[in-house]
Design goal:
The complex is a heterodimer. Chain A is α+β, with helices and mostly antiparallel strands. Helix content of chain A is 38%, strand content 22%. Chain B has one domain. Chain B has eight helices and eight strands, in the order E-H-E-H-H-E-H-E-H-E-E-E-E-H-H-H. Classes of the chains: A alpha+beta, B alpha/beta. At the A-B interface, strand 2, strand 16 and helix 14 of A face helix 3, helix 4 and helix 5 of B.
């Protein structure tokens, strides 16, 4: 089968000092806590979608391993060689990044109607467009900020370099706020002189607070200062929770129908007659009765969540699954395992799955699988056990079977 | 004294090692695991459980485990070595030499086999490799011993372990009958042989 992520080398990323992968279609990642399982999924996610740097929020600068000066991920993704480096910015770029980043921040803030609701028409000159304001602000900042002061905000920046193209990233924290606040008065006066701010506004203080207190970015995320790097399709499932109110049931009728078929086919719940995301109808020898979806147990909702998130996948996609066993009864694990194998086999979905669950591993290596599934796994299975101290051990299907069944070794690690 | 994990081929090796330990220290805490005596259905990760417990309790100074033959011994040791070295555990592998080869060459082949297994599963992901020394660093008329090291990607030594090999086999040296009916007694006597016990004393204590 075509490997979407064919090879990958990770250096200096979070808990991972160095890790070299040659993935299969189904990749199981085990190991004790803090050995790098989640870091590995995050590295794959970042490699495929560099904008996911934003997801680390204020901890974005911590993703470079303490022993390293930069993080490097390279490999082959969708048959294209790629190199991604995450590094601190050069000091002589900070001034430009800060001014551009702050101007972008303001411009984006102005675009968000709720954010400046009421202030904009009262305070800003109507004739000014957002980009004009941004340009003028840049001029003022260039004039009044000093390199030495701006360097105090060095930790608020990171650069992602993809195949030698730099994408600077900015997470304005207290440090950046301090840089701006130190020049508050001179900047305000200059903005007034430039007629950027109206004279005699009713609530200038509110505007000034928003402008100069430099609040954290919306949603607590940073942003790319210039362009945002492009991404390849990938799904990262960290939990199976499903917000059914956000789902358009009519548009997703086929998807819901497919889940119903699966539930009935695998007998996930007994006597199921009809399923939708509002109500389940059952029929036993006493007749029909209905149960609201919300009244169903957590385990059942989790399996529906998984089925929902996975059933919408298109062909040839990478899916990262973090501990799919959570909240699932062992009786459901078997069905989830079968479902995942089918997904990899029939839809060419490449799976990276972290797990602490013996049931999950036993199902993958157990006798319950049919010969076709086993035959697929013998070719397309890989288990990577991450060990303390930066060690890792990889097993193909046969090796994993031998270690589990003949040597009585726990593939989750010691 | 460092905590020590001893990997052996069979249950007679465990008997012998217990006798050696008790000869020098009656109060020493150790546990044993006989991998070859547990049925698959009942295994349930027991091998890992023993290692996990050993690493968790500092009071337990020795873990002596047998694997049921050379192939399993090599596989199991190659798996657990990286876990054990994290706790600064001393590691000893005990084996018999192959009667069809010169004793020295048989020991070298044994450590080369462990190297191949370890490297085949660890080298690609993280660059860790196992390097057996070329020299036999300790020997007498019954036993041979050599050192091997685990190196990181930069070629730095992370840890080492000792492989001890019987010239021929424990049972042959002890003169155990083919039906093992006198194994207990003969192995106990063997542990009292000062040439042999001194050899282990120097490695262990």
């Amino acid at each position: 089968m075509v490997k979407l992520l064919d090879e990958m080398k990770i250096e200096g990323f979070k808990a991972i000092d160095y890790l070299n992968l040659r993935p299969s279609s189904i990749n199981i990642i085990t190991g004790r806590n803090n050995t790098g399982k989640t870091s590995l999924l995050e590295a794959i996610n970042l490699f495929s979608d560099p904008s996911s740097l934003k997801d680390f929020k204020k901890n974005f600068s911590e993703i470079i391993n303490r022993k390293s000066s930069q993080c490097r991920i390279n490999g082959s993704l969708f048959k294209e060689k790629k190199e991604l480096i995450i590094k601190p910015p050069k000091k002589d770029h900070i001034f430009q990044y800060f001014i551009q980043g702050y101007a972008n921040f303001l411009e984006n803030s102005l675009e968000t109607s709720w954010y400046f609701h009421g202030d904009r028409k009262n305070i800003l000159e109507e004739k000014e467009s957002r980009s004009d304001i941004s340009e003028k602000l840049k001029e003022v900042l260039k004039k009044h900020l000093e390199l030495e002061g701006v360097e105090k905000a060095l930790d608020d920046f990171m650069v992602i370099s993809i195949d030698n193209t730099d994408y600077p990233f900015f997470y304005p924290s207290e440090k950046s706020r301090g840089v701006i606040s130190a020049k508050r008065d001179v900047i305000i006066n200059e903005l007034k002189e430039m007629k950027l701010i109206r004279d005699n506004v009713e609530d200038e203080g509110r505007f000034i607070r928003r402008l100069f207190n430099f609040p954290s970015p919306l949603g607590g995320q940073g942003f790319f200062i210039e362009t945002t790097p492009t991404k390849k399709e990938l799904t990262f499932i960290k939990n199976a929770s499903l917000s059914i109110n956000d789902i358009d049931k009519e548009k997703n009728a086929v998807r819901i129908d497919n889940i119903e078929d699966f539930l009935k086919d695998k007998n996930i719940v007994e006597d199921l007659k009809d399923f939708n995301l509002e109500t389940l109808v059952f029929e036993d020898n006493k007749g029909k009765y209905s149960v609201p979806f919300q009244f169903m147990g957590g385990g059942f909702k989790s399996i529906i969540g998984f089925l929902w998130k996975l059933s919408g996948k298109i062909d040839s996609e990478i899916v990262l699954l973090e501990e799919p066993e959570n909240h699932l009864h062992p009786g459901y694990i078997k069905e989830v395992v079968s479902f995942l194998i089918r997904l990899a086999q029939e839809e060419n979905i490449q799976l990276f799955i972290t797990t602490h669950d013996t049931d999950f591993i036993n199902e993958l290596l157990g006798e319950e699988l049919d010969e076709e599934e086993k035959s697929f796994l013998r070719e397309e299975f890989n288990l990577l056990q991450l060990k303390p101290g930066g060690f890792a051990e990889k097993f193909d299907y046969k090796e994993a079977e031998t270690h589990l069944k003949e040597l009585s070794i726990d593939l989750r690690g010691v | 004294m460092k905590n020590t994990a001893v990997f052996c081929e069979g249950k007679n090796d465990i008997k012998f090692f217990k006798n050696i330990l008790e000869k020098y220290d009656d109060n020493i805490h150790y546990s044993t695991f006989k991998g070859e005596e547990v049925e698959y259905e009942k295994l349930n990760h027991q091998e890992t459980e023993y290692v996990r417990n050993f690493l968790s309790y500092d009071r337990q100074k020795f873990l002596i485990k047998s694997e049921g033959g050379k192939p399993n011994l090599k596989d199991a040791f190659a798996h657990f070595a990286a876990h054990l070295l994290q706790n600064n555990t001393r590691m000893i592998v005990m084996t018999d030499t192959d009667a069809s080869q010169e004793h020295k060459n048989s020991l070298h082949k044994f450590t080369d086999d462990i190297k191949k297994i370890f490297n085949s599963r660890h080298k690609e992901p993280t660059g860790h490799t196992l390097h057996p020394e070329k020299n036999i660093n300790r020997k007498n008329s019954y036993l041979l011993a050599k050192q091997s090291y685990i190196l990181n990607r930069e070629g730095e030594k992370e840890s080492g372990f000792t492989t001890v090999a019987w010239r021929e086999s424990l049972e042959t040296v002890a003169g155990v009958k083919e039906d093992y009916s006198d194994a207990e007694e003969k192995i106990e006597n063997l542990a009292q042989n000062s040439v042999i016990s001194d050899f282990f004393k120097q490695i262990i204590f």
